[in-house]
Amino acid sequence: MKNLENKAAIITGGGSGIGKAIAILYASEGAKIVVTDINEKGGEETVSEIKAKGGEAIFVKADTSRPDDSKNAAEQAVKQFGGLHIAVNNAGIGGPLSPTGEYPIDGWDKTIAINLSGVFYGMRYQIPAMLSSGGGSIVNVASILGKVGTPNSSAYVASKHGIIGLTEAAALEYAKQNIRINSIGPGYILTPLLTNTLDEATMKGLAGLHPMGRLGTSEEVAELALWLNSDKASFVTGAYYNADGGYLAQ
Prior knowledge:
There is one protein chain. The protein is an alpha/beta fold. It contains 8 helices and 7 strands, in the order βαβαβαβαβαβαααβ. The protein has a single domain, classed as Rossmann fold (3-Layer(aba) Sandwich). Helix 1 (17-28) runs parallel beside helix 2 (40-52), helix 1 (17-28) packs across helix 8 and helix 3 (67-81) runs parallel beside helix 4 (105-132). The model has no long low-confidence stretch (mean pLDDT 97).
């Protein structure tokens, strides 16, 4: 039997990068996938790849900074697949780069809305759907920068620290109701968030920050999320796991 057989899962930001890798892996393990993304083209491509491999998936266009979009995603999971058992709140942005004393207010608001409020909105509607389905498991995608800081990214760092705290609070609330909630902290990963914005020299510099001497892959992060969302992690809740090539051990 596959690890996620007959489970319905919502993957936010599933149109590219880590979210796409998670959606494809989970489908291969038997889950029925609701892919959400603000990028309709990317989301539909993920669904097509899943279906081409014999999996089940639908795309729901969603902006995580809008509560009604998170509500709709949960409702579609229940409508299409009969319930909701798994969620990965992955969608996020890097935000502007600027010292805190000069940080653009609109950039702060947007980054917090998508990265942190978006995770809250997701859980706000995923949890009731999971309770109605008999329980479930949520993985919230934070970052290594949810544990440490870096210059010129105050909004991103604050949002990712917030995800870890939010995860711990929610995990305690639902620990006796068969819902496990954990967070993961990827290091710098080869995703469009990096490759579309940084030059080769900068990418090489980022790789050098990791003791393993390279960037991670989306597929490596997906494997960690899979374990946490599966019954193999049945006694794990309120935890933070990093996949960072040793970054945080320094």
